[in-house]
């Protein structure tokens, strides 16, 4: 669970649910306690009234039900009393042919209990011990709470429903607030994704104070990498330009040696000069590579390869037909690196092809490419040697053997892979390249 939005939403949701659970417990306890206190007060009053009639002694006990209330006369009314004195038990007429099983209560004490009543009623019973003319008397008064409990249950359900709706509304409002509060963070994330896709410009976002240092650090890193790569490429250009004059002078000296008749020395020196040129050119190409550690400008195969293919068509004329098939969106790899890679692969394919070259490119998360030609191909035992510096399989073809070596350097710089084989359709060399995103 790494999402900040999810964390905040879950924490608030759990807090609200705990609060709701506490309120639900309160709803189960408080209304029931209030109802019981109210009913007990009324039952206590009726018990005291019955006790008063017993003490007065002027009224027959059979008429007590009428004195306390006619509801005690109505059968199964839900209001009952029971008077126990010695072996004598007096029951309210409302009990009809049923009875309440109760234990005597010592004088001066009271007891509140729950028990099932007639017709499945749920009774709250208030029992109290008295002393009348020196004899212990227990008066128990009961009331059916079924209707009240049903009403309380409906109230609880209604309140819980309202509370759940309230929690849902609060969660929704909280989510919208978090969305709005983290909008600058989303903008920073989108800026980072644009950077990953090849946008080398610093992030321009109004970030919260907490992540401003992160945005500033990323922007400094972008500027630092850009300046370093630019300085490196400029310095390499200067080195290349500076080496041209000494190498030209040495070539002239070599020609003079040959004119003087010292051809062996001239050939040896010429070979060494060519080796120096090859080494310098290869290292210059290697140093120019940006690699995956530098964001650079993203690579769009459609925009970059079509002009390259047009240039190769003009260079090789009608002798070679180049078919280009590109799918996907621009990839987060350096454009100059990819042009270096495809330029060497396509030039090599056109150089060896009889009439056809086919290029397939799939871009998006990285780049995958397949280049095939209808040339003579490469023998199986020599495929593993392709890409070695200075390796040329045919000395009659112009070149210094650096093209595929540079391709290998680019692929290695990105941690990709390259495979050589024979094309099943064109029967020439097939090169498959994968550059991870």
Question: What do these coordinates show?
Answer:
By secondary structure, the chain is α+β, with helices and mostly antiparallel strands. It has three domains: 4-150, Beta-Lactamase (2-Layer Sandwich), CATH 3.30.450; 211-290; 298-435, Histidine kinase-like ATPase, C-terminal domain (Heat Shock Protein 90), CATH 3.30.565. The chain has nine helices and ten strands. It has helices spanning 4-56, 64-68, 146-181, 183-196, 212-259, 263-288, 301-316, 335-352, 403-413, and strands spanning 79-85, 88-91, 110-116, 122-132, 135-144, 321-328, 356-364, 366-373, 417-422, 429-435. It has a five-stranded antiparallel beta sheet with strand order 2-1-5-4-3. It has a five-stranded mixed beta sheet with strand order 6-7-8-10-9, with helices on one face. β9 (417-422) and β10 form a beta hairpin. α8 runs antiparallel to α9 (403-413). The longest helix has 53 residues, at 4-56. The two termini are 25 Å apart. Mean pLDDT is 80; it is low at 291-295 and 394-400.
| SSE-based structural type | alpha+beta
Question: CATH class of the largest domain, please?
Answer: Alpha Beta
Average pLDDT number: 80
Biggest sheet: strand arrangement: 2-1-5-4-3
* SS summary, helix count: 9
Largest sheet: 5 strands, antiparallel
Multimerization state: single chain
How many structurally independent domains?
3
Mind telling me the C-alpha Rg?
49 Å
CATH architecture of the largest domain: 2-Layer Sandwich
Q: Outline, from the CA principal axes?
A: rod-shaped
Q: At the third CATH level, what is the topology name of the largest domain?
A: Beta-Lactamase
**What percent strand?**
15-25%
Q: Tally the beta strands.
A: 10
- N-to-C SSE series? HHEEEEEHHHHHEHEEHEE
Give unreliable regions as ranges. 291-295, 394-400
Protein name: histidine kinase
Enzyme class: transferase
Subcellular location: Membrane
Keywords: Kinase, Membrane, Phosphoprotein, Transferase, Transmembrane, Transmembrane helix
